[in-house]
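Exercise 7.
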Amino acid sequence: MKLLHPIFKVPVVAGVLLTVLLALPGCRQPTADAPDLIILQTGRVRGNVYPPSLQMIAPLQHYPYLAGYVQKVREEAARTGAKVLLLDLGDSLGGSFASHATGYGNMVTYFNTLDYDAVMLGNLDNNVMPETLSALEAVVLNPFSNASGEPATKGTQFGARIDLDGLPVELLANFYGDTSGTEFPDRFPTWFGNTSSGVTPLRDYSKVVEKLGERAPGTFTTLAWMKFESPKNPPADFLKSLSALGVDAILAHRIYSGRERDIWTQETFYDWTPPVSENILRNNGGFTVARLNLKKDGDSWRVLSQELVPMTANTAARDQKIIDAIGQFSDQIEKADTFISELPDNVGEDDILVSYLGALSKIPGTDVAVYSKNSVRNNWPSGRLTASRVFNSLPWTTSVVQMDLTPDQLKKLGEIGGIVFLRKEGLDPVNPVTVTTSRFFASVLTERLALPKDGIRDAGVRSEFDYFVQFLAESPKPLVFSIPDGWEFITPKG
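Solution. The predicted structure, written as tokens, is:
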């Protein structure tokens, strides 16, 4: 099925005008045609859905406006006869203290209340188990496969077909385009949900489409591409393979760095085949919804317009239904936000890292405690230190694991940039050592050091965050942020 190219060939001199138009809430490219299909896509919400009463923990909340906007679009579609497809591209279930405290209940409630059609998993959702996903009413897509070639988490799918009020829609899940897991191992987990090892990003979609069976006439097919990195040159072979499979459009999501603008400053990817509708998130600080308006044109689909809609009060009124639904979690989140200590001074990121490594060093059998320096997100301000502030500085909830390394492997570990560790003084330079770290970083290290994945073993700590909070709560007060006696701090050469 061929998708006709949209009329978005904008001269460079008009780029500034296009930028302004796309930045305005509710502004569309003028067209005489009303859309037959409206696609709304979100992504990388990272669990940031808190009851408004907990503004002291998470002051910036976009979801009430998002829900209001979705309701407004559905009302518009009801008047014009358009269909509305609402989906999330991933990295949205986990990542917040609220998600951790509620066992992802806040996000399951959010997706179910807004009546999402599909939710895709990203690499940050790797710790979500099948029993949680089964509570989602939406189709759950997974862009990672296990060693047997099946979706990496039970109850998820590589692709799915849904009936959208009479319109057949086919959805395919993707993560990082055509990038392989071996090319950039740091980007991909080696486990997912209930899968312990052998997880790889899905790249061959021919078998997925074949398994779905013959398409119904008039099917709209889209690929959800999380972590879209907007390459300068289109990945020609990958796009050609998608076109051959009948993909009509790509829904993409990208994270802008702090040095980039929140809005487009140039033509984007409408000249690609299939064309791309891109959503953006800037440093996890600004949230938008991408809206794609499509028109059925014979046996093809024509792009009418693309919008980036900021989720603010200027976009839509707050939806009280979603506020009430999330409000049920107030007591649960507040109770989990336990008091740890009173801090007389600010605690910097380096001191937090040393403290966390010190906590790992206390786990029985540990010879070397390893973590990533880049994973400490912010400092702890003076005053009350609570569990939510700890989470916001180290927002990872994977289990703690151990593995044995030879002296040569430990030397290679010291050559990896960004990795720091505490090492026991006086270790035997010949015998293997036991390394303790989070499961997330263990998966990275096994790739970098070419270690067998079955060499990772559980250290008996289900959640590194919970363990760290307990360690801090049980530590003598005032808290001391220094290297433990008998240990030495190692900074890699890389």
